[in-house]
Prior knowledge:
Blueprint: E1 2-3, E2 14-19, E3 25-30, E4 40-42, E5 52-54, E6 85-91, E7 94-101, E8 109-112, E9 125-129, E10 135-139, E11 164-166, H1 169-172, E12 186-189, E13 208-213, E14 216-224, E15 239-245, E16 260-264, E17 282-290, E18 299-304
Amino acid sequence: MLGITGMAHAQNDGDHLITNLGGQSSLATDLQVPVAPVNLTVGTTPGLGATLRVRGDQLVVPDLDPLQASMRCTFRTDVLSGAPQSWRMYRDVNRIGAIWNEGNHRVWHVQALENRDVGQDRYSGLMLQNDASDGIWVMNAGGPTGARAFPVPATQVLDAVGYAGLGSRPPMLPGGTSPRGPWSRLHLFHDVMGTRPEFAFRPQMLNGITLTGNSDLAYMGQWFDHGTSGTGPEVDDRSNLVIATSENALAPGNTYWDNISFRYFGNLTTTADGSASTVGGLEMMRIQPYRATAADPIQGLVLVIG
Protein backbone atom coordinates (compact mmCIF):
# COMPACT_ATOMS: atom_id res chain seq x y z
CA MET A 1 0.00 0.00 0.00
CA LEU A 2 1.34 3.40 -0.94
CA GLY A 3 0.59 6.18 1.53
CA ILE A 4 1.42 9.76 0.56
CA THR A 5 2.43 11.40 3.83
CA GLY A 6 4.01 14.61 2.69
CA MET A 7 5.00 16.79 -0.22
CA ALA A 8 7.91 19.22 -0.53
CA HIS A 9 8.38 21.01 2.80
CA ALA A 10 11.21 23.34 1.84
CA GLN A 11 12.55 25.04 -1.20
CA ASN A 12 14.55 22.65 -3.46
CA ASP A 13 13.44 19.77 -1.26
CA GLY A 14 12.64 16.66 -3.30
CA ASP A 15 10.33 14.00 -1.96
CA HIS A 16 11.23 10.39 -2.45
CA LEU A 17 9.98 6.97 -1.42
CA ILE A 18 11.17 5.32 1.77
CA THR A 19 10.20 1.82 2.86
CA ASN A 20 9.99 0.51 6.41
CA LEU A 21 10.78 -3.00 7.62
CA GLY A 22 7.17 -4.01 7.02
CA GLY A 23 7.42 -3.24 3.32
CA GLN A 24 5.21 -0.14 3.56
CA SER A 25 6.32 2.84 1.47
CA SER A 26 5.59 6.55 1.78
CA LEU A 27 6.91 9.87 0.52
CA ALA A 28 9.48 11.55 2.71
CA THR A 29 11.58 14.70 2.40
CA ASP A 30 15.32 14.78 2.13
CA LEU A 31 17.02 18.19 2.36
CA GLN A 32 20.15 16.64 0.87
CA VAL A 33 18.41 16.18 -2.51
CA PRO A 34 17.80 19.56 -4.24
CA VAL A 35 15.38 18.19 -6.81
CA ALA A 36 11.73 19.24 -6.99
CA PRO A 37 9.35 16.29 -7.52
CA VAL A 38 7.94 16.00 -11.05
CA ASN A 39 5.81 12.91 -10.79
CA LEU A 40 5.54 9.59 -9.04
CA THR A 41 5.27 6.35 -11.01
CA VAL A 42 4.05 3.22 -9.25
CA GLY A 43 5.65 0.33 -11.12
CA THR A 44 9.06 -0.70 -12.39
CA THR A 45 9.43 1.79 -15.24
CA PRO A 46 9.65 5.55 -14.61
CA GLY A 47 7.29 7.78 -16.56
CA LEU A 48 7.18 11.52 -17.18
CA GLY A 49 4.30 13.94 -17.57
CA ALA A 50 2.04 12.61 -14.83
CA THR A 51 1.41 13.70 -11.27
CA LEU A 52 0.75 10.10 -10.31
CA ARG A 53 1.09 7.26 -12.78
CA VAL A 54 0.03 3.78 -11.69
CA ARG A 55 1.15 0.79 -13.75
CA GLY A 56 -1.62 -1.65 -12.94
CA ASP A 57 -0.12 -4.31 -15.18
CA GLN A 58 2.93 -4.42 -12.91
CA LEU A 59 0.99 -4.86 -9.67
CA VAL A 60 0.66 -8.47 -8.57
CA VAL A 61 -1.73 -7.98 -5.64
CA PRO A 62 -5.33 -8.89 -6.61
CA ASP A 63 -8.36 -6.89 -5.56
CA LEU A 64 -9.71 -7.73 -2.11
CA ASP A 65 -13.28 -7.40 -3.36
CA PRO A 66 -14.60 -10.99 -3.70
CA LEU A 67 -16.59 -10.00 -6.78
CA GLN A 68 -13.39 -8.87 -8.52
CA ALA A 69 -10.80 -11.03 -6.79
CA SER A 70 -9.09 -11.94 -10.06
CA MET A 71 -8.51 -8.28 -10.99
CA ARG A 72 -5.65 -6.10 -9.88
CA CYS A 73 -6.67 -3.15 -7.71
CA THR A 74 -5.04 -0.31 -9.64
CA PHE A 75 -6.31 2.49 -7.44
CA ARG A 76 -8.04 2.29 -4.07
CA THR A 77 -8.72 4.55 -1.09
CA ASP A 78 -9.85 3.28 2.30
CA VAL A 79 -11.65 4.87 5.24
CA LEU A 80 -13.12 3.46 8.43
CA SER A 81 -16.68 2.14 8.43
CA GLY A 82 -19.19 5.00 8.51
CA ALA A 83 -16.65 7.64 7.52
CA PRO A 84 -17.35 9.76 4.43
CA GLN A 85 -14.82 9.84 1.62
CA SER A 86 -14.27 12.47 -1.03
CA TRP A 87 -12.10 13.29 -4.04
CA ARG A 88 -12.22 16.95 -5.07
CA MET A 89 -10.94 19.05 -7.94
CA TYR A 90 -10.07 22.74 -7.61
CA ARG A 91 -9.07 25.43 -10.07
CA ASP A 92 -7.26 28.05 -8.00
CA VAL A 93 -9.67 28.52 -5.05
CA ASN A 94 -12.77 27.51 -7.00
CA ARG A 95 -14.11 24.01 -6.44
CA ILE A 96 -14.92 22.47 -9.83
CA GLY A 97 -16.43 19.21 -8.70
CA ALA A 98 -16.27 16.25 -6.39
CA ILE A 99 -16.79 12.49 -6.16
CA TRP A 100 -17.78 11.24 -2.75
CA ASN A 101 -19.83 8.95 -0.54
CA GLU A 102 -21.56 9.75 2.75
CA GLY A 103 -21.41 7.73 5.93
CA ASN A 104 -22.29 4.07 5.49
CA HIS A 105 -24.08 4.75 2.19
CA ARG A 106 -22.77 3.01 -0.91
CA VAL A 107 -24.15 5.69 -3.21
CA TRP A 108 -21.55 7.10 -5.63
CA HIS A 109 -22.05 10.88 -5.76
CA VAL A 110 -20.69 12.83 -8.73
CA GLN A 111 -21.15 16.59 -8.67
CA ALA A 112 -20.00 19.46 -10.88
CA LEU A 113 -19.90 22.78 -9.05
CA GLU A 114 -18.63 25.19 -11.68
CA ASN A 115 -20.88 28.24 -11.61
CA ARG A 116 -22.36 29.43 -14.87
CA ASP A 117 -20.38 32.34 -16.29
CA VAL A 118 -23.05 34.98 -17.00
CA GLY A 119 -20.59 37.19 -18.84
CA GLN A 120 -19.76 34.45 -21.33
CA ASP A 121 -23.32 33.15 -21.31
CA ARG A 122 -21.87 29.68 -20.92
CA TYR A 123 -23.47 26.36 -20.11
CA SER A 124 -21.94 24.40 -17.28
CA GLY A 125 -22.78 21.18 -15.56
CA LEU A 126 -21.79 17.54 -15.68
CA MET A 127 -20.82 15.87 -18.96
CA LEU A 128 -20.47 12.10 -19.21
CA GLN A 129 -18.92 11.11 -22.52
CA ASN A 130 -17.79 7.94 -24.23
CA ASP A 131 -15.93 9.92 -26.89
CA ALA A 132 -15.60 13.51 -28.05
CA SER A 133 -18.80 13.53 -30.10
CA ASP A 134 -21.57 12.22 -27.84
CA GLY A 135 -22.52 11.84 -24.23
CA ILE A 136 -24.98 12.87 -21.54
CA TRP A 137 -25.00 16.46 -20.35
CA VAL A 138 -26.68 17.32 -17.04
CA MET A 139 -26.91 21.10 -17.11
CA ASN A 140 -27.52 23.63 -14.39
CA ALA A 141 -31.16 24.63 -14.00
CA GLY A 142 -32.29 27.60 -16.09
CA GLY A 143 -29.56 27.58 -18.71
CA PRO A 144 -27.77 30.81 -19.65
CA THR A 145 -29.12 34.12 -18.32
CA GLY A 146 -31.62 32.48 -16.01
CA ALA A 147 -34.88 31.49 -17.64
CA ARG A 148 -33.71 31.15 -21.23
CA ALA A 149 -33.65 27.41 -21.87
CA PHE A 150 -32.10 27.11 -25.34
CA PRO A 151 -28.84 28.43 -26.80
CA VAL A 152 -28.53 31.03 -29.51
CA PRO A 153 -27.68 28.94 -32.60
CA ALA A 154 -25.31 31.54 -34.02
CA THR A 155 -23.07 31.64 -30.96
CA GLN A 156 -23.76 28.54 -28.87
CA VAL A 157 -23.59 24.94 -29.99
CA LEU A 158 -25.10 22.30 -27.72
CA ASP A 159 -23.12 19.41 -29.19
CA ALA A 160 -22.01 16.14 -27.59
CA VAL A 161 -25.55 15.23 -26.56
CA GLY A 162 -26.20 11.52 -26.90
CA TYR A 163 -28.29 8.90 -25.21
CA ALA A 164 -29.32 8.05 -21.67
CA GLY A 165 -30.52 4.70 -20.40
CA LEU A 166 -32.22 4.39 -17.02
CA GLY A 167 -33.22 1.14 -15.38
CA SER A 168 -31.90 -1.90 -13.57
CA ARG A 169 -28.47 -3.11 -14.65
CA PRO A 170 -29.25 -6.60 -16.07
CA PRO A 171 -31.88 -5.41 -18.60
CA MET A 172 -29.51 -2.71 -19.86
CA LEU A 173 -26.90 -5.30 -20.83
CA PRO A 174 -27.11 -6.86 -24.32
CA GLY A 175 -27.86 -10.52 -24.86
CA GLY A 176 -30.40 -13.00 -23.56
CA THR A 177 -33.80 -11.42 -23.01
CA SER A 178 -32.30 -7.96 -22.56
CA PRO A 179 -32.70 -5.15 -25.12
CA ARG A 180 -29.72 -3.93 -27.09
CA GLY A 181 -30.62 -0.31 -26.52
CA PRO A 182 -30.80 2.46 -25.80
CA TRP A 183 -32.09 3.42 -29.22
CA SER A 184 -33.79 6.73 -28.39
CA ARG A 185 -32.38 9.78 -26.62
CA LEU A 186 -33.87 8.36 -23.42
CA HIS A 187 -34.58 4.69 -22.85
CA LEU A 188 -36.35 3.59 -19.67
CA PHE A 189 -35.95 -0.08 -18.75
CA HIS A 190 -38.39 -1.95 -16.54
CA ASP A 191 -36.88 -4.53 -14.20
CA VAL A 192 -38.84 -7.37 -15.82
CA MET A 193 -38.03 -7.49 -19.52
CA GLY A 194 -39.88 -10.66 -20.55
CA THR A 195 -39.53 -11.61 -24.21
CA ARG A 196 -37.25 -9.17 -26.02
CA PRO A 197 -39.42 -6.22 -27.10
CA GLU A 198 -37.11 -4.66 -29.69
CA PHE A 199 -39.11 -6.32 -32.49
CA ALA A 200 -41.13 -3.09 -32.61
CA PHE A 201 -38.20 -0.70 -32.90
CA ARG A 202 -38.02 1.57 -35.98
CA PRO A 203 -35.04 3.66 -37.14
CA GLN A 204 -37.19 6.79 -36.79
CA MET A 205 -37.34 6.25 -33.01
CA LEU A 206 -34.40 8.57 -32.41
CA ASN A 207 -35.43 11.85 -30.86
CA GLY A 208 -37.79 10.59 -28.19
CA ILE A 209 -38.37 8.31 -25.21
CA THR A 210 -38.49 4.52 -25.47
CA LEU A 211 -39.94 2.40 -22.68
CA THR A 212 -39.46 -1.38 -22.56
CA GLY A 213 -40.61 -3.98 -20.08
CA ASN A 214 -42.86 -7.01 -19.64
CA SER A 215 -42.35 -8.04 -23.30
CA ASP A 216 -43.66 -4.73 -24.65
CA LEU A 217 -42.33 -1.48 -26.08
CA ALA A 218 -43.77 2.03 -25.99
CA TYR A 219 -42.46 5.19 -27.62
CA MET A 220 -43.20 8.90 -27.61
CA GLY A 221 -41.28 11.48 -29.60
CA GLN A 222 -40.60 13.07 -32.95
CA TRP A 223 -41.02 10.87 -36.00
CA PHE A 224 -38.90 12.08 -38.89
CA ASP A 225 -39.61 11.25 -42.53
CA HIS A 226 -36.92 8.77 -43.61
CA GLY A 227 -38.68 7.63 -46.78
CA THR A 228 -40.90 4.59 -47.27
CA SER A 229 -38.23 2.16 -46.05
CA GLY A 230 -37.46 4.20 -42.93
CA THR A 231 -33.73 4.03 -43.65
CA GLY A 232 -33.27 6.96 -46.05
CA PRO A 233 -32.02 10.47 -45.23
CA GLU A 234 -34.24 12.69 -43.10
CA VAL A 235 -36.49 15.07 -44.99
CA ASP A 236 -36.18 18.52 -43.44
CA ASP A 237 -39.27 20.10 -41.85
CA ARG A 238 -41.32 16.90 -42.02
CA SER A 239 -42.02 15.21 -38.71
CA ASN A 240 -44.89 14.07 -36.53
CA LEU A 241 -45.37 13.64 -32.82
CA VAL A 242 -45.84 9.90 -32.36
CA ILE A 243 -47.26 8.05 -29.36
CA ALA A 244 -46.97 4.31 -29.91
CA THR A 245 -47.38 0.98 -28.17
CA SER A 246 -46.52 -2.45 -29.51
CA GLU A 247 -47.56 -6.07 -29.23
CA ASN A 248 -45.99 -9.09 -30.90
CA ALA A 249 -49.06 -11.34 -30.63
CA LEU A 250 -52.32 -9.37 -30.65
CA ALA A 251 -55.17 -11.64 -29.61
CA PRO A 252 -58.52 -11.38 -31.43
CA GLY A 253 -61.46 -9.62 -29.78
CA ASN A 254 -62.14 -6.36 -28.00
CA THR A 255 -60.43 -6.87 -24.63
CA TYR A 256 -56.71 -6.30 -24.63
CA TRP A 257 -54.18 -4.52 -22.45
CA ASP A 258 -51.84 -2.88 -24.93
CA ASN A 259 -53.86 0.29 -25.49
CA ILE A 260 -53.18 3.99 -25.34
CA SER A 261 -55.34 5.00 -22.40
CA PHE A 262 -56.29 8.45 -21.08
CA ARG A 263 -57.24 8.32 -17.40
CA TYR A 264 -58.15 10.52 -14.45
CA PHE A 265 -57.28 9.53 -10.88
CA GLY A 266 -59.10 10.63 -7.75
CA ASN A 267 -58.42 9.87 -4.10
CA LEU A 268 -57.88 6.12 -3.71
CA THR A 269 -59.19 6.11 -0.14
CA THR A 270 -62.68 7.43 -0.87
CA THR A 271 -65.64 6.26 -2.93
CA ALA A 272 -67.04 9.75 -3.49
CA ASP A 273 -65.32 10.10 -6.88
CA GLY A 274 -66.75 6.92 -8.34
CA SER A 275 -64.47 5.01 -10.71
CA ALA A 276 -61.85 7.77 -10.44
CA SER A 277 -61.16 6.48 -6.92
CA THR A 278 -60.52 2.89 -8.03
CA VAL A 279 -57.10 1.40 -8.61
CA GLY A 280 -57.50 1.72 -12.37
CA GLY A 281 -58.96 5.22 -12.20
CA LEU A 282 -61.49 6.73 -14.60
CA GLU A 283 -60.63 5.78 -18.17
CA MET A 284 -61.99 8.56 -20.35
CA MET A 285 -60.70 7.48 -23.76
CA ARG A 286 -58.95 4.44 -25.19
CA ILE A 287 -57.10 3.99 -28.47
CA GLN A 288 -57.15 0.26 -29.04
CA PRO A 289 -55.69 -2.09 -31.65
CA TYR A 290 -58.34 -4.53 -32.82
CA ARG A 291 -59.04 -7.50 -35.06
CA ALA A 292 -62.10 -9.68 -34.92
CA THR A 293 -60.24 -12.92 -35.69
CA ALA A 294 -56.61 -13.95 -35.81
CA ALA A 295 -56.80 -13.96 -39.63
CA ASP A 296 -57.98 -10.35 -39.90
CA PRO A 297 -55.61 -7.38 -40.32
CA ILE A 298 -55.08 -5.17 -37.27
CA GLN A 299 -57.20 -2.01 -37.16
CA GLY A 300 -57.56 0.86 -34.72
CA LEU A 301 -60.54 1.77 -32.57
CA VAL A 302 -61.10 4.97 -30.60
CA LEU A 303 -63.38 4.36 -27.62
CA VAL A 304 -64.84 7.21 -25.54
CA ILE A 305 -65.53 5.56 -22.19
CA GLY A 306 -65.94 8.16 -19.46
